[in-house]
Amino acid sequence: MIFNGHTKLNTVIGYPLSHSKSPLLHNFIYRRLNINAVMLALENPKIGLLARIIKNFPSGLTCVTMPFKQAIMPFLDSIDERAKAIGAVNTVINKKGKLFGFNTDIDGIAFALRKVKPKNKTVLLLGAGGAARAAAYFLGKSGAKILYLNRTQSKALRLKKEFGGVVINPADLSRHQASVIINATSVGMNPKIFKTPFDKKYLKKGQVVFDVIYSSQPTRLLKEAKQAGATAISGMDMFIGQALRQIELYTGKKMDVIKLSKTARKILSR
Ligand code: ATR
């Protein structure tokens, strides 16, 4: 794609942003699909300033990352129901100066778990932060039996109240048989890649283990899952799935997610 007078600006906002792979992935997909836009990283600690920029500049599509997924919400003209239910926005679309908020993390999780049929399956969800809320929303809607385990139990109790399921303690792990395990904590993330949120003695053949962490692949948890004979799903799938949905919202066109995800994975793992 050659930039010209019609090239539109899209952005990712967050602080810090040096780790973000959104510009890499988006710009790759824009080139692939001949979308005349470019994504730039706007790194600033002031959400009010960033909100003014994306509204007025304008930024047609804005990816919202840490720590602004909640803080952006008061600046938006409209927020879709799913993003409201989760309490977090990761995507803002600017239509004629009005800001519309969405949460595509759910679509990313659905894409990552596309081969797993969560209905009636027991799913152990580790963590109770933003990523866990999106996962709990998806699992709740899919009819899974959710077991919540989080360092701070009060947060897990809140998730249970909103999305259904049962809160457990680490001591209960040997009694519960989960066929799917999802790590939605930040344990194992760069630079502490030697850490795992889950003792490998509980990993078993036939289980599905999905780690939402997309940097530093494979995580220790996924390595140990594979060694135990489980199916390992990386956070890269979620990252790609949520980005492609963002582009669908921006262009109004359906993406061939399976096909694009194959090349996107290569670009991201370089
Ligand atoms: P995100 O929005 O990416 O999900 P977050 O909202 O900060 O990030 O949530 C991080 C999750 O990782 C939380 O569930 C957190 O547990 P607490 O609720 O107890 O804070 C979990 N987490 C982070 N560091 C952890 C650690 N060292 N051990 C266990 N859990 C950890």
Q: Helicity, in percent? A: 25-40%
Average predicted confidence as pLDDT: 96
Instruction: List how many beta strands DSSP finds.
Output: 12
The N- and C-terminal alpha carbons lie at a distance of 21 Å
Q: Order of strands across the widest beta sheet?
A: 2-1-3-5-6-4
| Assembly of the depicted chains | single chain
Our estimate of the beta-strand percent is 15-25%
Spans with pLDDT under 50 lasting ≥5 residues?
none
Overall morphology: globular
Main beta sheet: 6 strands, mixed
**Count of helix runs:** 9
What binds here, in terms of ligands, is:
2'-monophosphoadenosine-5'-diphosphate
Q: Structural class of the helices, strands and pairings?
A: alpha/beta
Order of helices and strands: EHEHEEHEEHEHEHEEEHEHH
CA-atom Rg in angstroms: 19 Å
Structural description of this entry:
This protein is of the alpha/beta class and 270 residues long. 36% of the residues lie in helices and 20% in strands. It has nine helices and twelve strands. It has helices at residues 22-32, 47-56, 81-86, 105-112, 130-142, 153-163, 220-227, 235-251, 257-269, and strands at residues 8-14, 37-43, 61-64, 78-79, 91-95, 98-102, 122-126, 145-149, 166-167, 180-183, 208-211, 231-233. The strands form two sheets. It has a six-stranded mixed sheet with strand order 2-1-3-5-6-4, sandwiched between helices. β1, α1 (22-32) and β2 (37-43) form a beta-alpha-beta unit. α1 (22-32) packs across α8 (235-251), α1 (22-32) packs across α9 (257-269) and α4 crosses α5. The longest helix is centred in the C-terminal third of the chain and has 17 residues, at 235-251.
